[in-house]
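User: Can you recover a sequence for this backbone? Please restate the input before giving your answer.

Assistant: Of course. Working from this structure:
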């Protein structure tokens, strides 16, 4: 048995969540969140998840930050992402957050470029140390909404850019994704830390 043989057999990156789960997200969950999430609520949810993640980071035992842990399926988490370390999870959240920030910048200008966003391209690369990933996460996430507000980007827009699961969505809907996405990985981090 090789080292790779001991890895869990998971879907390929970008395989998605499955047809029916994607339909549920697109036609049930996103419309519901769009009705209920004001810009103020989006920021509150984001900040709440950030604080929980910072607490989990603080509880990560030294020396285990790069140890992948297989987590149970989590709603909204692709199967290929279930065997990550704390470091990998933080790196992924920064990649996604930076991508959403660029999307919002386009939408605030009423621009709808075809960015061909794919979930397979936002997986962690694994070239950063834990300290680098941790600091980048803290720096980016603690300034995310401050940057948007300073740039006048917290506003309604009619333009849409396609999300791989939700389809074409507006600026506010992309910010809803920005707010709930960390919660998915917070639940992942809870399982990772519990699995040490």
């Amino acid at each position: 048995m090789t080292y790779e043989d001991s890895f869990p057999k998971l879907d390929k990156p970008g395989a998605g969540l499955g047809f029916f789960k994607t339909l549920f997200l697109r036609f049930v969950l996103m419309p519901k969140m769009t009705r209920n999430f004001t810009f103020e609520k989006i920021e509150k949810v984001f900040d709440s998840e950030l604080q929980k993640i910072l607490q989990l980071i603080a509880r990560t035992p030294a020396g285990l930050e790069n140890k992948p842990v297989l987590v149970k399926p989590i709603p909204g988490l692709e199967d290929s992402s279930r065997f990550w370390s704390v470091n990998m999870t933080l790196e992924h959240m920064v990649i996604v957050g930076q991508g959403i920030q660029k999307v919002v910048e386009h939408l605030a200008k009423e621009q709808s470029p075809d960015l061909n966003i794919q979930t397979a391209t936002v997986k962690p690369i694994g070239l950063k140390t834990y300290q680098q990933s941790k600091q980048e996460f803290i720096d980016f996430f603690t300034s995310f909404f401050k940057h948007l507000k300073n740039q006048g980007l917290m506003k309604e827009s009619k333009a849409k850019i396609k999300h791989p699961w939700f389809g074409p969505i507006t600026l506010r809907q992309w910010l809803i994704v920005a707010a709930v996405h960390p919660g998915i990985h917070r639940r992942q981090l809870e399982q990772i830390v519990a699995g040490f």
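That completes the design. The chain has five helices and four strands.
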